[in-house]
Design goal:
The protein is an alpha/beta fold. Helices cover 33% and strands 28% of the residues. It has helices spanning 50-57, 80-86, 101-106, 116-126, 143-155, 173-189, 201-207, 225-230, 235-241; strands at residues 4-17, 20-34, 39-43, 65-70, 73-74, 87-90, 161-165, 193-197, 210-215, 218-224. Helix 4 (116-126) packs across helix 5 (143-155). The chain is globular. Bound molecules: adenosine-5'-diphosphate (ADP) and magnesium ion (MG). The site of adenosine-5'-diphosphate (ADP) has 11 residues, from strand 1 and helix 1.
Length: 250
């Protein structure tokens, strides 16, 4: 239910060029505002800085300049673990630990919590898995089921914001549509604010209330998903949407 605001966010990184280290600006003064309970998709070619942007919001990396605010509070003022419980990042490839699904769901929580069984079942239901899954061996799940369990594990922490980094790019088309439906349901039922990275235009169209296009570290387009994807203003985003911009272009 939180609002996220990025103010002139830059991120610089040292990148190897031959034997030299060159400083590269991966994000170049990005302003972005994601409203509470909104699904905002971020589109852009590979290397444009999409994952970096999510990592900054979760403080897996720190901004080089500018600031990020969660409901008006600079995230630098927040304790990192608390921030990560409220603002959860879900990766492209689901990470499962050895053991049963229930052990995966309890990961990082106090095991003694007597309400945990009920909570686990509730979170599994939220991702459309029944409670029989609790006893299943996590290593035997399909990749689509793993992505659901990984989402359920995130929900155990009762986040306010979900950051999803291409969560369906490893999935087949059916599992992809199922996850998209789940994301929409979670947005409605739990009133989560959702930032969803994808390089798939039709996915952005299906999902997003609002869509942002990031190219070579700059926000080049932002607006209602249907409008942006059908009638982009910026020449670079037009090129990207026509499928002529696969890699970053500077
Ligand atoms: N750990 C890293 N070290 C150095 N450069 C990196 C690292 N991760 C990403 N980069 C570079 O930063 C830029 C943005 O990467 P990234 O945010 O992953 O883009 P995207 O998610 O849009 O594909 C790219 O040029 C990439 O090569
Ligand atoms: Mg990425």
């Amino acid at each position: 239910m939180f609002k996220i605001e990025l103010k002139k966010v830059t991120r610089k990184r040292a990148v190897k060029e031959g034997n030299n280290l060159k400083e590269m600006e991966v994000l170049k003064g990005v302003d972005l505002s994601v409203q509470p309970e909104e699904i905002c998709t971020i589109l852009g070619p590979s290397g444009s800085g999409k994952s970096t942007l999510l990592r900054l919001i979760n403080r897996l990396e720190e901004v080089s300049s500018g600031s990020i605010h969660l409901d008006g509070i600079d995230i630098k003022e927040l304790e990192v673990l608390n921030l990560r419980k409220k603002v959860s990042l879900v990766f492209q490839v689901p990470v499962m630990f050895d053991g049963k699904v229930e052990e995966n769901l309890r990961f990082g929580l106090k095991v003694s919590d007597e309400k945990s069984d009920e909570e686990m079942e509730k979170c599994l239901n939220l991702v459309s898995l029944d409670s029989n899954f609790l006893k299943r061996d996590s290593q035997e799940l399909s990749i689509g089921e793993r992505q659901r369990v990984s989402l359920a594990r995130t929900l155990m922490h009762k986040p306010e914001v979900l950051l999803l980094d291409e969560p369906t790019s490893a999935l087949d088309p059916t599992a992809t549509l199922q996850i998209e439906k789940l994301i929409k349901d979670l947005n409605q039922e739990l009133k989560l604010t959702i930032l969803f990275i994808t390089h798939n235009l039709s996915q952005a169209q299906r999902l997003g209330h609002r869509c942002v296009i990031l190219i070579a570290g700059e926000k080049v387009e932002e607006g209602d998903s249907q409008v942006v994807l059908q009638n982009p203003n910026n020449p670079l985003s037009q090129k990207f949407i026509r499928g002529e911009l696969v890699k970053e272009e500077k």
